[in-house]
Amino acid sequence: MTGGNRGIGRAIAEAFLAQGDKVAVTTRSGGAPEGALDVRCDVTDPDAVEAAFAEIEAAHGPVEVLVANAGITADTLLLRMSEGDWSSVLDTNLTGSFRLAKRASKGMLRLRRGRIVFISSVVGLLGSAGQVNYAASKAGLVGMARSIARELGSRSITANVVAPGFIETDMTAVLSDEQKDTIKSQVPLQRYGTTDEIASTVLWLTGPGATYVTGAVIPVDGGLGMGH
Q: For residues 108 and 116, what is the distance between their CA atoms, to the nearest angstrom?
């Protein structure tokens, strides 16, 4: 999985490790959970993605489950958004996920099975002022997953999307109490989610209980994005 050194990604990696799976975690700067294969990879670099898969396959064999979680933000209002703000977010969040899925699917096709999970966001379908680039990248994952689901379904490969809402992470810890209260007031469950709640959803999607689930968008957002 990608981006597993902190937050949601780390919780997902630790959940797989806890059930005894072989886990490889890619990050740009290191810091994978103990017990995981710690691989350096910049998902915006096609050669780095290829090298990372070669390292992982040499250590663990073909990748059976891909969780594409690496993501960045560069928030600003549309009229102030630079070409760089747009392209950097799209290249990491959307194109990076394409590179990972394309490379992982090669091994999955040989195995005639596989699970691909893209970590999107409630913002991808709900929208968010100041996040035109981020929302576009996260919405794009839905179209990509559903197209992959149609292409590769005959080989028992599933592709699904998890769309977290507001989750307690380092990224949300910097918000003021007033901002947090405003956010909670919009969420029917009146609280933030936890990284473990995202991780358990990913475990279900990649486990034996979800063999007939593909092309789905699973919201884990306390009801924030209902109807989207």
A: 10
What is the dotted CATH code of the domain comprising 7-220?
A: 3.40.50.720
- What pLDDT score does 89 carry? 98
Structure confidence at residue 31 (pLDDT): 87
Nearest to 218 by CA among 129, 145, 137: 145
Respond yes or no: is residue 212 known to be catalytic: no
**CA 191 vs CA 120, 164, 167, 222: distances in Å:** 20, 13, 9, 8
Q: Considering 134, 141, 163, 206, which one is annotated as catalytic?
A: 134
- CA pair distance 135, 224, nearest whole angstrom: 15
- pLDDT, tens digit (0-9, with 9 covering 90-100), for 31-56: 899 999 999 999 999 999 999 999 99
Q: Where are the domains of the chain?
A: 7-220
Q: What are phi and psi of 223, to 5 degrees?
A: 95, 5
Q: How distant, in Å, are the alpha carbons of 14, 189, 191 from that of 186?
A: 30, 9, 9
Rg for the chain, CA atoms, rounded: 17
Over the stretch 23-36, which tens digit does the pLDDT of each residue have?
999 998 888 999 99
